[in-house]
Amino acid sequence: MAKVVSTLFISADGVAEIDPDWHFPYFDDNMGRAVGEDYDTADVLLIGRDTYDSFAGAWPDREAAGGDDAGFAKQLGDVRKIVVTRQQLEFSWRNSEVIQGDLLDVVTALKADPDIKGILIPGSISVVQQLLAAGLVDELRLLVHPVAARKGRRLFDDGDKPYHLKVTLTEVFPTGAIRVIYAPTAAPATVGYDEVKDQVPA
After folding, report:
1. How far apart are CA 24 and CA 34, in angstroms?
2. Band of the pLDDT at 202, cuts 50, 70, 90?
3. What does the entry give for GO biological process (predicted)?
């Protein structure tokens, strides 16, 4: 089964809608390496329309310019990109396609495809929220910035049930940013009041 991995820049107060004012002061070589490792997990990018427009408006030109990030830009151009949108689009960026069918059905089929090693969702908050609710996200890879954004869209929306997560990796960068990789897990066993009371020193 292919893994579905979400990778997001996020503030300490949970905002995942990037503002350059709080993001770029913390982007360094360490964060760049972490981002590269995330992209190396996948041969399919699953992205929302806004994320696609942002990427397609920047990375093809960077690839053509041949600068320091041209190699990464080529990697993005070469990978298969599935855009989650209800609109029919004409693509100028190679290997791009509009999702065909229901999001959950498409992702379930991609996960079961033996020719696919991984599906990466960069940004695309609404896509991640839908897949989290359906239990289809295998890893959340968060780059937590040491700043409270105080405004913007948050990753975790309101809902009836909590998402229980286990930490599989943490890394602290010199900037104070923290890389955390979570995997969904079952809720821990409930501990009764009497058991907790017995564990508290007198």
Report:
1. 15
2. low
3. riboflavin biosynthetic process
